[in-house]
Amino acid sequence: MTLLRRCLLALFILVAAPVQAAGDSGWFYRGSDIAPDPAWTFGTLPNGLRYAIRRNPMPEGQVSIRLRIAAGSLHERDEERGWAHFIEHMAFRGTKNFADHEARETWQRLGASFGSDTNASTEPTQTVYRLDLPRADQAGIDQSLKIIADMADTALFDPAVVNAERGVVLSELGRRTELSNRWDELTRGLFFSGLTFANRDPIGTEETLKAANPEGLRGYYERWYRPERATLIVVGDADPALVERLIAARFGGWKGTGPAPREPDYGSIAQVPERTGTLVYAGAPHIAQLTWLRPYRAEPNTKAKERTELARALAARIISRRLTAKARTGAAFVSADIASDQATNIADLTQISINPKEGRWKEALAEAYAIVADALRAPPSETEIQREMENLRTAARAGLEAEPTQKSQQLAERLLSAIDEGGVISSAKVRLELLEELAPAMT
User: What is the pTM of this model?
Assistant: First the structure.
């Protein structure tokens, strides 16, 4: 997500960031002409692990830690579908220096509860381990970093534990509703044909999860869990210099196994013989989606890009407002909006979502698309542009006022998103100034 849109709750931009050389403290802002936020300390260990540290007293005495591995479901082979998520589970189930459940019990003694303060997630482009530590003294931070480093480097894949955890991930797969499964299968195959993403649901399949074994899981783990693919974020009520030393002590000895892997083939957009799909399901709400797909291209987050993305955001906001106005005057749809997304290593897409009134989906589609066609024929009015710009200014000013009260968890997640999406972050003052700098170009 780019700087302005992440701040102003507009659209998303996803751009991959390259791994930088050891010792590099400028990796995050490289290629960008947007003013850095001096509150952050960035660095890289000799083994390639990147880190970002920020002191923040909100909440007092607490620290938020995030470990990002630049690998997720898009990095799985066909037979490994769901294994990135499976490994996320296994990392909590025993390492070289911590027995099964010992990490969880240690964090509980430090005041962190599993699920709310300690958790993880697997996405197409990344796997993230999260810890919000209520008591951020040196001993607690050091012990926590030691555990996380072990999870990233020395996870065990005991056959008995693998079999036990298999039941957990299969139950997660089984808890998904039939409607969501069928909708996901339909839209992935229709909208993302030819792309790896089309058949890389992070939860995997029953077949691949049942086939998972310790050797196979370890193979994925050793292939992708490498220091040069890892980023550690620490935000909270702690001295950055101390945290930097602890990171070096706990993660400095981590070494990758074997040669670094090549990036996988993410596929390319393919035409489908039939460009429409239908899902009929009793009791389901009526919805229609139209999607336009373009190839994903990685670009640095610069002012020039911000200008393009601001124009793109304004266009989407203006069309969405027109759709809302139509819905309020007797349209065949209850609501409709347009959104845009540049999904890392997937695609650059635009999508219209429409909630038609029962039995009137054809009319709803025609009405919604007529509004889009009208927007393509003639530019928006100055009044429309300035109304949306003023809304963005209001949001930016609110962000400036709220900046001193940002919690460590929010700051950590914001930076995590920027890293995964190839954007940059800056202070609220800089974001507001950039908005005003770009405003004259929005004609």
Answer: 0.91
